[in-house]
TrEMBL record:
Residues 100-275 form the Prephenate dehydratase domain. Its EC number is 4.2.1.51, 5.4.99.5. The gene is pheA. InterPro entries: ACT-like_dom_sf, ACT_dom, Chor_mutase/pphenate_deHydtase, Chorismate_II_sf, CM_dom_sf, CM_II_prokaryot, G/b/e-P-prot_chorismate_mutase, Preph_deHydtase. Pathway: Metabolic intermediate biosynthesis; prephenate biosynthesis; prephenate from chorismate: step 1/1; Amino-acid biosynthesis; L-phenylalanine biosynthesis; phenylpyruvate from prephenate: step 1/1. It catalyses: chorismate = prephenate; prephenate + H(+) = 3-phenylpyruvate + CO2 + H2O. This is Bifunctional chorismate mutase/prephenate dehydratase. Coiled coil: none annotated.
């Protein structure tokens, strides 16, 4: 066991001391440069104020973070270096204007984690209770942007979000892809002492096999969010929750079994919505809504123009149109920005085939 004590090796100690002096010098330099960067950002803010431009520029942030990863030579891993720059930019943007972000809460939900990954920590976080409320807050201008889940790799589309996108005038300005890991958490001393399990139906679906194998005989209680499951389990020591690491941390619940989701690649995709058109970043996606007439060959005529224009489709989901019975609309995601010639050609082709197209937004691809 190593203990603090009188120095045993003068040479090693002197080396440590000189390395620490060098670290102090570098820290001073880093701090000076971060403030120098912030001063430039403030000047940009003054120009934006004079010309009426949006403070938040997702396309510029995506370019900066891509470059950070590209030029990174280690020993820091790319994702850690990106996270540091993410926070520097978040704080720089907060000097211009502290953004208020509405998201599907409560605190410590996966959507909350998506907000922090995308915007960093220097924002005002505004958890709300429903997906519809997120849209209402941003539409009313009481929040600058909103974040909602749109699809999970195991469970498919989040219909409440798609239905809101159908009716809103907001734009999709960004996406976040988050690996979703579920843990079993409880104040119980071991798994055998657990009598009751709190969990969200989506979580139950994503952990079905593990739960059947390990928690089969227990009482399962469905709750409205992962964070609520953790909150309930906190109050009852013979209960457990299945939820994410941030919920365990937020409620101080010990993790008894980690990574209990059936698919190790389990991922949820979130979108950022706002009243803002986002310019091209060079690595973008576009989400559109297509309403096609209900007749033979209709879907073929929607899809063919993308093939002809060489535009890659990454998603297609159908939802019943709310306007009339048995009519469907299609949500499509495609590679490229709506300003790209190939994308424009494809969209014109779809309209020429008799379908109506609503562009939901172009935005930088998730990292
Ligand atoms: O380039 C800008 O427009 C800035 O406001 C600067 C900056 C940054 O910190 O680099 C900050 C916020 C924007 O979202 C994008 C970039």
């Amino acid at each position: 066991m190593s203990q603090e004590g009188p120095p045993e090796n003068g040479g090693t100690d002197a080396r440590q001391e000189s390395l620490r002096q060098e670290i102090d010098r570098i820290d001073g330099e880093v701090q000076r440069l971060v403030n120098q960067r912030a001063a430039h950002v403030l000047e940009i803010a003054r120009i934006k104020e004079a010309n009426g431009g949006a403070f938040y520029r997702p396309e510029r942030e995506a370019q900066i973070l891509a470059r950070v990863a590209e030029r990174n030579e280690g020993p820091f891993p790319d994702q850690d270096m990106v996270r540091i720059f993410r926070e520097i930019m978040s704080s720089c943007l907060a000097l211009e204007r502290r953004l208020r972000i509405a998201f599907l809460g409560p605190e410590a939900s996966f959507t909350h984690a998506a907000v922090q990954v995308h915007f960093g920590h220097a924002v005002e976080e505004h958890p709300v209770r429903t997906i519809a409320e997120v849209f209402r807050e941003v539409e009313a201008g009481t929040a600058d942007y909103g974040v909602v889940p749109v699809e999970n790799s195991t469970e498919g589309a989040v219909n409440a979000s798609l239905d809101q996108l159908m009716g809103t005038n907001l734009q999709v300005c960004g996406e976040v892809a988050l690996r979703i890991e579920h843990h079993l958490m409880s104040h119980a001393p071991d798994m055998q002492s657990i009598r009751r399990l709190y969990l969200h139906p989506q979580t139950q679906a994503q952990c079905r096999e593990w739960l059947q194998d390990h928690m089969g005989g227990l009482e399962w209680v469905e709750v409205t969010s992962n964070a609520e499951a953790a909150r309930r389990a906190t109050a009852e020591p013979d209960s457990a929750a299945v939820a994410g690491a941030s919920a365990a941390e937020f409620y101080g619940l010990p993790v008894l079994a980690a990574g209990v989701e059936d698919d190790p690649e389990n991922t949820t995709r979130f979108v950022v919505v706002g009243a803002q058109w986002v310019g091209p970043s060079g690595n973008d996606k576009t989400s559109i809504l297509v309403s096609a007439p209900n007749r033979p060959g209709s879907l073929f005529h929607v899809l063919q123009p993308f093939s002809l224009a060489g535009v890659n489709l990454t998603k297609i989901v159908s939802r019943p149109a709310r306007s009339s019975l048995w009519d469907y609309v299609f949500f499509l995601d495609l590679d490229g920005h709506q300003e790209d010639a190939a994308v424009q050609e494809a969209l014109e082709g779809v309209e020429a085939g008799g379908a109506a197209v609503k562009v939901l937004g172009s935005y930088p691809r998730a990292r």
